[in-house]
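*** Query protein ***
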Amino acid sequence: MGIDMSSVDAAFGFEPYDVVLRSQLYAVITAPTINVCVKDIVVHGSTLVATPTGYLAAIEDGSVPDGDPQILGGVIGCYDENMKPLQYIPAARTGNGTIAGYVMVADHPDQLWIAQEDGDTNAIDLAEAGMNIDLISAALCAPNSFTGLSTQELDSTSAANTEALQFRLLWPHEDDTPAVDASPNSRWIVRANEHFYSATQAGLA
């Protein structure tokens, strides 16, 4: 058993739940507007970038991913332009003048994730399992000041039975103990609904 997080707001981003189904390398273009952190959810930037090993797709780096339907997946590693590990890729990093760095992304559309809902008083109700939900990021995807990790969470006020939301709520994490009305800050297992490599689906009523 782990620590019950259902009463503590301690954002940790989106962590792969169980095994990582697939991972691929993506580029971050020089001088990103946002920070790019390990455990961040990132989206497709609709751009291919020439690298020393061929063309790579770039992630969107001009705005936070909140509400964006082109989810790629979650960052499991950050690297500089020479593939040396970084704690995170800070906003405005220039790298080699073309590439600020690279991110390894767990990008399979069936990947399961664990994430914490935000501390909003409108907690996710257990009856909302099966609905869809968006993520929420700090300004410019600001990292945790101690660890450099993501501070993204699930936006608890957005849960609804519409396909136009980013994730499907599956079930609360087994180490948390929400009652009929889940406590604020509960951890949930989710799957991407609006994914670059798959079609969206309406959430359950």
